[in-house]
């Protein structure tokens, strides 16, 4: 049996109260324990997933000068392209063995947030790239909204507690390419051990080996999803809000064995962020005698800025 439990979002979106409760219990238990869950019943169609992979493979195969023209100065890599080796895990000097693209929020009816967020970047060479990215963004955001509704119930909050904070939130869709490995990496891996910054992460592409999750005993366990499943995990923002009741588990992407060095890995995390003025102050009902308040009060925007500096994406 896999160490990562499986859940079906259709249980939650059914109108059957028993199935809904079952989903809340299962995901709540998984997130209090290993911090990861494999989820089916999401809103992505097979066609959309195939289209997205096709587009991102074409993008990463473009000549380096063209990709570099989409790396925008001064926005901390929040939109467009980030080149190979640039991002490093907190406390590590070697860059991860990856290049990636960022799609950001498509703000509706909110001029203040429209001004706050950088614009999405259009890839001129690929006429379908941006439309497919936008559609995927919307479907993952919708999936995440229901997952957060279930977590709100689990945390004894009103079911729609997160809705207002995630509407026009600062979420990021990040297609990643881990290129073939040419020579023995010096102390670098595809993605060094880290916790995610955001509320929750929905990961497409965890179908082959590579992603590993650290369990309570400190063992690395493989996190592999079935073809119809997304891997979902708790990020540090939700861990703070819940006073660490929900666990933001450390994970990494290891290099493949030498016989597979010639292959690329493509994975696509959706990092669900709230709007920047959401307070991440520990919820009163998660502070108890046995679990006193563990984190200082901070807003999502302040916290994100601190973390982007640590990752080498924003210079102070
Ligand atoms: O590539 C993967 O499977 C996971 C990537 C990841 O953990 C991240 O980008 O935060
Ligand atoms: Fe991650």
From TrEMBL:
Pfam families: 2OG-FeII_Oxy (PF03171), DIOX_N (PF14226). It comes from Croceivirga radicis. InterPro entries: DIOX_N, IPNS-like_FE2OG_OXY, IPNS-like_sf, Oxoglu/Fe-dep_dioxygenase_dom. Residues 168-274 form the Fe2OG dioxygenase domain. SUPFAM superfamilies: Clavaminate synthase-like. Belongs to the iron/ascorbate-dependent oxidoreductase family. PANTHER family: FI07970P-RELATED (PTHR10209:SF881), OXIDOREDUCTASE, 2OG-FE II OXYGENASE FAMILY PROTEIN (PTHR10209). This is Flavonol synthase. Keywords: Iron, Metal-binding, Oxidoreductase. The keyword Lipid metabolism does not apply. It comes from the Bacteria. The keyword Membrane does not apply. GO terms for molecular function: metal ion binding; oxidoreductase activity. Transmembrane segments: none annotated.
């Amino acid at each position: 049996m896999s160490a990562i439990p499986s859940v079906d979002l259709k249980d939650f979106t059914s109108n059957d109260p028993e199935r809904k409760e079952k989903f809340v219990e299962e995901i709540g238990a998984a997130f209090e324990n290993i911090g990861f869950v494999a989820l089916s019943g999401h809103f992505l169609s097979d066609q959309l997933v195939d289209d997205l992979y096709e587009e991102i493979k074409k993008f990463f195969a473009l000549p380096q000068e063209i990709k570099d023209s989409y790396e925008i100065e001064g926005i901390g890599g929040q939109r467009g392209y980030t080149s190979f080796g640039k991002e490093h895990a907190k406390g590590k000097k070697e860059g991860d063995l990856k290049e990636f693209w960022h799609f950001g929020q498509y703000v509706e009816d909110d001029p203040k947030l429209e001004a706050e967020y950088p614009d999405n970047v259009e890839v001129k060479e690929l006429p379908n790239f941006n439309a497919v990215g936008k559609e995927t963004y919307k479907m993952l955001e919708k999936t995440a909204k229901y997952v957060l509704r279930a977590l709100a119930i689990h945390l004894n909050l009103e079911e729609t507690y997160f809705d207002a904070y995630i509407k026009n939130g600062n979420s990021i869709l990040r297609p990643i390419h881990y290129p073939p490995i040419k020579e023995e990496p010096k102390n670098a891996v595809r993605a060094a051990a880290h916790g995610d910054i955001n509320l929750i992460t929905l990961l497409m592409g965890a179908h082959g080996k590579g992603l590993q999750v650290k369990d309570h005993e400190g063992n690395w366990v493989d996190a592999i999803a079935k073809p119809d499943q997304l891997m979902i995990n708790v990020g540090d923002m939700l861990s703070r809000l819940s006073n660490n009741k929900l666990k933001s588990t450390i994970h990494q992407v290891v290099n493949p064995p030498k016989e597979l060095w010639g292959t690329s890995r493509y994975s696509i995390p959706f990092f669900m962020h709230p709007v920047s003025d959401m307070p991440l102050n520990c919820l009163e009902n998660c502070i108890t005698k046995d679990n006193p308040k563990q984190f200082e009060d901070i807003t999502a925007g302040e916290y994100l800025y601190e973390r982007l500096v640590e990752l080498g994406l924003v210079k102070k």
